[in-house]
Design a protein that fits this description.
Blueprint: H1 2-8, E1 19-20, H2 37-42, E2 50-56, H3 63-73, E3 79-85, H4 88-94, H5 102-110, E4 117-120, H6 128-133, E5 138-142, H7 156-160, E6 164-167, H8 175-184, H9 186-195, H10 200-203, H11 207-266, H12 271-288, H13 328-345
Parallel strand pairs: 1-4, 2-3, 2-5, 3-4, 5-6
Helix pairs in contact: 9-11
Keywords: Lipid biosynthesis, Lipid metabolism, Nucleotidyltransferase, Phospholipid biosynthesis, Phospholipid metabolism, Transferase
Catalytic activity: phosphocholine + CTP + H(+) = CDP-choline + diphosphate
GO molecular function, one term: phosphatidylcholine binding
């Protein structure tokens, strides 16, 4: 089963860091004969790669360094790239103080994908003996004259020997540019590292500046909180406005619906007016023409136990003020009593 699994799954391995140069340096089996640029560009045998050398300080290793090494690696179809890194002693003597130590710079170069070999403590000036010892075919560097160590161009003799191959610099990025940014924004980076736990002594910051930076950090935190509150307030106001707009729109719709229903019920031609008119007409017609009392209703007999009440004195019918009827039946009774009085007078 292990053999089947091994056959199915490919064997992926990470690229190992570049090796450090040994004393022998070149292990080529074929005799190392001098090449011309034209020969190198046509291609060489696998066991005879074109050995290209690129040197530098490589402090604060950045993309400009990596692009220069990429160009050097791709100069020829079959290139073996050797990178020489100068030590701290030489660099501080001829160029200036570095941010990274030489060990850190060596390790940074080892992990660049274009580098095949790292040569530590590289010389400042390339001698014929050094080139012969490491079997170097060509030297890659940008074409700008590099004046140092009393020379107008340390690569002048390499160019005259036809062993120099130029590369292009990447504009806008360099070690000097990065250091300039740090110096320009010194206060910002000092405050940043104080906030991350570094002491004033480690940062070489005075007591007064330390207190000033810490106060500025507190002010910045307060500003950030204020900005956060403002953003939340804006979001809240926006949501309230959105809700208010929806409520107003719904209120307008309900108002129109209520007004329409009101006009339909109580308007000039509304349902309520028609109902009121119909009920008023029925009541008026009922009051003006009431139903007649039945003629064949039996007379009321007096009870023998009770004596009849004495008759009331006669009164003329036009002086009598009968009480207003409370109902159609009461109106009918008053009208019939009035007709009986008229008959008596006649």
């Amino acid at each position: 089963s292990e053999s089947v699994e091994h056959a199915v799954m490919p064997d992926f391995t990470l690229t190992k860091p570049a090796i450090f140069a040994r004393e022998t340096s070149c292990d080529c089996r074929a005799p190392h004969e001098k090449l011309t640029i034209a020969q190198a560009r046509r291609g060489t045998p696998v066991d005879r790669p074109v050995r290209v050398y690129a040197d530098g300080i490589f402090d604060l290793f950045h993309s400009g360094h990596a692009r220069a090494l990429m160009q050097a690696k791709n100069l020829f179809p079959n290139t073996y790239l050797i990178v020489g890194v100068c030590s701290d002693e030489l660099t501080h003597k001829y160029k200036g103080f570095t941010v990274m130590t030489e060990i850190e710079r060596y390790e940074a170069l080892r992990h660049c994908r274009y580098v095949d070999e790292v040569l530590r403590d590289a010389p400042w000036t390339l001698t014929p003996e050094f080139l012969e010892k490491h079997k170097i075919d060509f030297v890659a560097h940008d074409d700008i004259p590099y004046s140092s160590a009393g020379s107008e161009d340390v690569y002048k003799h390499i160019k005259e020997a036809g062993m120099f191959v130029p590369t292009q610099r990447t504009e806008g990025i360099s070690t000097s540019e990065l250091i300039t940014r740090i110096v320009r924004d010194y206060d910002v980076y000092a405050r940043r590292n104080l906030q991350r736990g570094y002491t004033a002594k480690e940062l070489n910051v005075s007591y007064i500046n330390e207190k000033k930076y810490r106060l500025q950090n507190q002010v910045d935190r307060m500003k950030e909180k204020v900005r956060t509150v403002e953003e939340k307030s804006k979001h809240f106001v926006y949501r309230v406005e959105e809700k208010s707009h929806d409520l107003i729109q719904k209120w307008e719709e309900k108002s129109r619906e209520f007004i329409g229903n009101f006009l339909e019920l109580f308007g000039p031609d509304g349902t309520w007016k028609q109902v009121f008119q119909e009920r008023s007409g029925r009541m008026l017609s009922y009051a003006l023409s009431p139903r007649e009392s039945p003629c064949n209703s039996p007379p009321r007999e007096l009870s023998p136990l009770r004596s009849p009440s004495p008759p009331s004195p006669p009164a003329r019918w036009h002086n009598a003020r009968p009480s207003p009827p409370n109902s159609p039946k009461g109106a009918s009774a008053s009208i019939s009593s009035m007709s009986e009085c008229d008959e008596d007078e006649k």
